[in-house]
Amino acid sequence: MRRPGTGRDVTRLLADFGHDLPAAPSVSPTVREPRLFRHASRRGPRRRGAGWAASTRAPVSVWRMTSDQAPVLWPFIAAPGLPPTGAQMGIDVLSGGSFYLDPFGWVLRDDVPVTNPNVICFGKPGRGKSATTKAFILRMMDFGYRTLILGDPKDEYEPLCAVLGVEPFRIGPGLPARINPLAFGPLAQGWEHLDAGEAQARAAIVFGRWLTLLRGLVGSQRVGETPVPFGPVEENVVKAGLRLLTGYTHGNTHLVETTIPALWHLLNSPTPELVEQCRYASTRHFLDETRLLRDALGQLTSGALAGLFDDHTSITVDWSAPIQSLSLSRLEPLGDEAVGIALTCLSSWGRGMRELADPGDLRIMVRDEVWKQMRLGVEAVKSFDGDLRLSRSHGDVQWANAHKPSDLLSVGDAGSQAVAIAKDLLHLADIKILHGQDLGVARDLEQLMGLGPIARDVVTTWAMHGKGRALWCVGEAQYKVQTVLHPTEAALAFTNDVIAGAA
Fold first, then answer.
1. Same domain, 225 and 152
2. Range of the structural domain that residue 239 is part of
3. Is the Cβ–Cβ distance between 296 and 215 less than 8 Å?
4. Which of 85, 152, 220, 427 could be stapled to 376 by a disulfide with Cβ–Cβ 3.0 to 4.6 Å?
């Protein structure tokens, strides 16, 4: 008997008869993928340092709320971030990243909803408007921007000018500085070499600017509660007088700069040529019909403009300096109307100085206390409106500071033309900075700015609990931003010296 395992198996037997069994496929060992997640009990892994809890489970609270209330418990929802270009202003609170401000850079981008570089900064006094403005000025200098302060009623920018080695120009009664709002500006350069078409185009710009200014100044004067009218008849008289005084009527190759007092004297003692051009029957007819216009100009010449804007410009501005400032603090005792008239004159003068700006000469035009200018009437509002509309063509960032949006409504009666134009000014500034406001302003924020309840509460609650906090409206997008200052910037932005000295 053969021992087990010594005979032939089935494979050998079949092979003897010419048959081969197919080879069995080799099976590779199964490799299990590593587990990303492991099951854990409700109490956690039961080992030292693993967070094991003796209780069965933590209590869970269930809440039901509306979308307006949800951000209280789930606040980490942020709008799409802006590109990191321009001045780094602070922290975007919702995203935790840095927040940058680049007005012209945003205008050139299709992914940022901004079509103009203008900025309007609102805020209750002491909430950080000046600090934000000065931080932007300083940080944009690294990108070649220069700054012109078109009227500093409180000398808030004087410390900044001192640090940059610039002496502000002080305008006030008894001071030597004079500003002629009827200055030609750069457009007078090379006039004798212009052809007829180019000379006519430049004249239209210059006389248009002057008429806008004079319309605003005359309209600031009142007969009782009614502003002095400045209609087509008054415009024709003023335009004819300016053309005669400058020599444009006679086709002079070199135009003569004139002043507001010179215009007033010409209208008081009109020449036969002026009477004829204005289509009056006689000199007496001219004087009778223009009495109100002449009295308004006379009041300006002997009143608010006396010794300030009634002569040729006596200052030499270094346009290559990093900053230039025109101080109006000496006008504060004269009242808000005098300051508003001065701001209007400086606005016209500043526009004239920028009408032939070189390409790449970018400038920040700071306008403080704009509500004082706008309260002069509808014509002053139109002047400011024109400055905002021309910012793109001049390469300027128009930066306006005001207390609250409802300041725009103080220019006239409800439903008036002035109020309608003032409301439209908000659409000429695609960048709006809303610092802290009292709860009483909440309704104005919703009506004028179109803010919802969440954004409104940001301005009236969160922004009121710290300086430099603001809601930034960039086009239709909104950002909660905390401005961050360097200690040196904080010292320059401090505006409570008088209060601190008295404490």
1. no
2. 188-288
3. no
4. 220
